[in-house]
Amino acid sequence: MPQPPSPPQNEDSPRGLAFAVSAYLFWGILPIYLKALSAIPPAEVVAHRIVWSVPVAGALLWALGRTRDIAAALRSPRTLAMGCVTAGLISINWGIYVWAISTNRTLDAALGYYINPLFSVFLGAVLLRERLSRAQIGALALAVVAVVVVTVEAGSLPWASIGLTFSWGLYAFFKKWLPIGPNQGFLLEVLILMWPALGYIIYLGITGESHFLSGAGSQSLLLVGSGLVTAVPLIVYANGAKLLRLSTIGILQYIAPTLIFLTAVFVFGEPLGRARMIAFPLIWAALVLYTGSLLYQMRRVRP
């Protein structure tokens, strides 16, 4: 059985910063790529993201000489079971995200990823019994108020935001318990998901509902490329996170939702509306409180 990865060092490195910023910038402009696939059902897009991610992740592990790790993981019932959990969560996250982009709910996606770090704090308090500071409690309260404002205005919960927050937050939480490195873990997840995804693609082809290799050739190329745009930023981020402090990651993670927000408003032309004009400043204020609390805690424990 592969050994758990060594704990990350508690200092920043230029290489780690370059990796993490690159990943977040890529995630920030990913909606533009996914928007070009909006004519294709989200389930089909996700299936292709999974299938075409396998050769990308596999080639990387082969180049790193770590293919034995994935072979050992596939023989470990515990690792395989945990991989099924994280694979299920990331597939749900991808599905909601693709659906949100294709149905002009990109602002809801941005809101969900803004809330995510606060949800991670909540998970730590509930599942790990971590004590929350007053600032963190205040940040959570502001996030709840923001969701309530959007809910009251729309007449229903912002399900895309909630779904993205829960699926990514739980994925990140359980990913920590996966006893293999980040690159191996990603390949394990897409290998687990590959068979149902491939089966679904074959089914679409048999029933004549497939958009792959039918119609516009550009769509087929975009579907193949979805493996690259899925695997590369995840792998780059996973390697960069190991070379950065927690506080640095906590600040950098706002790059992606900020770019998603700007893309939704200025590129896709999605209306902000009164509720969102109230909710987003509330979330930004919550994130200022959260980040300030995180930086303060890091300074206290630093020798």
Your description of this structure?
This protein is mostly helical and 303 residues long. It has one domain (14-301). Helix content is 79%, strand content 0%. It has twelve helices and no strands. It has helices at 14-35, 42-64, 67-74, 77-102, 106-127, 134-154, 159-175, 182-207, 217-241, 246-252, 255-267, 273-301. α1 packs antiparallel against α9 (217-241) and α6 (134-154) runs antiparallel to α12 (273-301). The protein is globular and about 55 Å long. The two termini are 36 Å apart. Mean pLDDT is 86; it is low at 1-9.
Topology (elements, then pairings):
Elements: H1 14-35, H2 42-64, H3 67-74, H4 77-102, H5 106-127, H6 134-154, H7 159-175, H8 182-207, H9 217-241, H10 246-252, H11 255-267, H12 273-301
Strand content: under 5%
Quote the distance from N terminus to C terminus. 36 Å
How much helix, percentage-wise, in residues? over 70%
What is the N-to-C order of secondary-structure elements (H for helix, E for strand)? Answer: HHHHHHHHHHHH
Question: Tell me about the biggest sheet?
Answer: none
- Helical stretch tally: 12
Tally of domains: 1
Specify the structural class.
mainly alpha
Mean pLDDT: 86
Q: Tell me the overall shape.
A: globular
